[in-house]
Amino acid sequence: MVSNLLQSSTNHSSAEKTITMIASSIIAVATHNSTLVATKTTTTNTRRLLVTDLLQQSIRSRFFNTLGDSIRNHVVVMGVFSSKPTSSSTPVSLEPPASTAEIVKSHSNQGEEVKKTSKNQLKRQRKWEQAMEVKRRRKEQERNVRLAQAKVDGRDIEKERKIQEENRKAGAGWAKRDLKWKQAFDKNSSKYQICLDCSFEDVMIPKEINSLASQIRYCYASNKRAKHPVNVKVTSLGGTTLDRLENVSGFDQWKHKAFECTSQSIAEVYDDKSKVVYLTSDSDNVLDSLEDGKVYVIGGIVDRNRLKRAAINRADELGFETARLPISYYLSMVSTKVLTCNHVFEILLKYREHGNDWKKAFLDVLPNRKDAQVKDGDE
């Protein structure tokens, strides 16, 4: 009966059902013949453990026909079923585990108990614990020093903490930082603008859209800490890209850092096309310098070189002037000259920071994987 049940199983999806049927069959045969006996408690436990192990083997086995013979042979050899009935013994029911999941969980727990931690793992654990303890003590000492210094200066620490908490709840900290940044922006900001055109989402896959959202975040962070920040607009922002950015803490505060996001297209935001320059590596025009009053557009494309000439085609469609960065004039690169949105953004910021020096801006921003080498002369 067991062998027939095993042979009827043709795939792993019915494994649990088959195992339950096997256990029920074993119990039925034992009850029918009245040959299963338990002379001692240890014998009963041994039999139960045997069946459990056999069921576990059936879970791991890929060939149920072979396993059927294995179960039958083990049952006969180990004497689970006695060939002679014993009248003085009382029948004992053999209860299999409720499900294969419980069997797997039981055996995995046993394995965890048997598994031992190696000496190297213990050594690393002790070393990490010692380092954490040293770090904790150092922080505690620094805190005590600050508190002692505050008492010497006559400061009321508890009152200061209360004021800080009230300011935090009222948002005074945000307002103070925004005001400080705005003052620095009005004093040191560059007079040109940068625009990120996010109108290519419908031709990008989800992985590329997620990457674009991350690059926009990098652009915001770079502009916020730049010595000469610029006004930034992100146009045609919507869909999945906007959903990803809205999950970022503080996204609604970006507008206070001259970083405005809108669902309007670039054509709707900038009416004067003469002031717009669309940056693309496919352009025949080379960008010699950044002019005040101009808007430099970066195409929000993360295509892994799939979408050929997508940016320049859109610029031509809208009637915008195009240009490419003068990378080949200053550097020789083995890899592609196509850069990510945040790299182009940072280069435009560093150009003004380094006194309108393209070469220094490129070397400061381009990652090492580009393997950029400085040229001695012009191309």
Written account of the structure:
The protein has 15 helices and 8 strands. With 379 residues, the protein is of the alpha/beta class. The chain has a 6-stranded parallel sheet, with helices on both faces. The protein has a two-stranded antiparallel ribbon with strand order 7-8. Helix 2 runs antiparallel to helix 3 (41-60) and helix 9 (206-225) packs across helix 10 (239-246). Residues 5-13, 31-42 and 74-98 have low confidence and may be disordered.
Total DSSP helices: 15
What fraction, in percent, of the residue positions are helical? Answer: 40-55%
Query: Which radius of gyration do the C-alpha atoms yield?
Result: 36 Å
How much strand?
5-15%
Q: Write the H/E string, N to C.
A: HHHHHHHHEHEHEHEEHEHEHHE
Structural class: alpha/beta
Defining traits:
alpha/beta, 6-stranded parallel beta sheet, two-stranded antiparallel sheet, 8 strands
Summarize the structure.
By secondary structure, this protein is of the alpha/beta class. Helix 2 runs antiparallel to helix 3, helix 9 crosses helix 10 and helix 14 crosses helix 15.
Q: How is the topology of this model organized?
A:
Blueprint: H1 2-7, H2 15-33, H3 41-60, H4 64-77, H5 100-114, H6 119-152, H7 157-170, H8 172-188, E1 193-197, H9 206-225, E2 231-235, H10 239-246, E3 259-261, H11 266-269, E4 276-279, E5 295-299, H12 310-318, E6 321-323, H13 327-330, E7 331-332, H14 341-353, H15 358-365, E8 373-374
Parallel strand pairs: 1-2, 1-5, 2-3, 4-5, 4-6
Antiparallel strand pairs: 7-8
